[in-house]
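Bug #2210: token dump truncated for Membrane domain of glycerophosphoryl diester phosphodiesterase?
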Amino acid sequence: MSDGHGPLPETPSGWSAEQPPPYSAPPASPWTAPGSSPQTPYGEPYGQAPGHQFHGPGPQTPYPPHPHPQAGHGFVPPPPALRPGIIPLRPLGFGDILDGTIKLIRSNPKAVLGLSAVAALLAAVPLAVGQAVLLDTMGGVIADPTSAPTASDDLTTLYGFASQYGGTLISYAVQFVVVTMLTGVLTRILGRAVFGGTLSSGEAWRLVKGRIPALFGVVGLMAVIMVVPLIVFVMLIVVFSLNATRGDLVWIAGLSILFLGLYLPFYLFIRARFAFAPSAVVLEGRGPLDAMRRSWDLVTGDFWRVLGILFVTSLLVGLVSGVLSVPFTVAGTLVGAFGAGSAGSIVAATLLITIGATLGAMFTYPFEAGVSGLLYADRRMRSEAFDLVLQTAAIEQQRQGWVHASADELWHPSNSARP
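Reproduced locally. Full output below:
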């Protein structure tokens, strides 16, 4: 390839067909313009149909003739999509998204899994402590049933309530903070991994820390949208239940079941519609409301596919997370319940429950973030021809033999081939 306009030299042995080798003589600018007629190893511009010319700002490069399928003749398939990083630079299928997410974790395990483990540990410790204390109380009741607290034992009741719900509330608060920051860091790592580049934890944090307030804004707005209906409903149920008769409790229970049946589709709808808001905040530099509008627009036209992929992904990660965490959780529960109320049983139960919760969340966090980020890239490639921009930049990056930091700027919407 010479100055981005001539055909590439033939692929040497050892390089895959999907990843042409880097070339020497880098130009003054790290990237060529999206319309500068990038060439494939076959001499064809990426993204154009065979038999047509490339009508961009650069010189027109005709396609070489392809034999048409005729009797006695084979058909020459189009060249495979360029794949410099974790995904092929073309619209993605569900298998491509799952494969790309796994490659994201494998290509940078220290940053991805290390950060996820820290976030999971911080969120798991308060929950594990509360559960261990509660289990210790239950163990004392099992050993001596006469020691069960009565309604008049206010201190014991308050202690049990605090241990059961206090740890959970603290865990949710910690999870809200650390998972929000983790999502931003993982999204930035993913944005570079698409081009085959890697980022350390420190580099990713330095790039994303300015977007953390906007990320909290997105997560906070989504939490308000999802939680407010629940709070209103619970308050109404409490008010109706104060003076309710036994007959009234039947229709209150029926109303609760109806509400939950309606709330689940509402939750799934909101989650799918705003799934790309964190990516828009981190990769496009948008504010909270603008990012949520951007996500809504990207999902429009492909809502059911986006919802289906997110839902199936949740089922998969839930299954794997359960397999990893359940053995430790069950062991911790047994130790805490039958530990005779000793301090050692509380410590052991806390440790086992923490390990189980950490292992499960350490896998869940990066996998869900990876699927969401790659699905965002797929929607941009389908609706904005963004794959042409990525292919052009990737070819130039391979010509130089390195991934320039300005690759992050390509995610800005101004670089879309079709705004």
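Output looks complete on our side. Residues 95-384 form one domain. Marking as cannot-reproduce; reopen if the truncation happens again.
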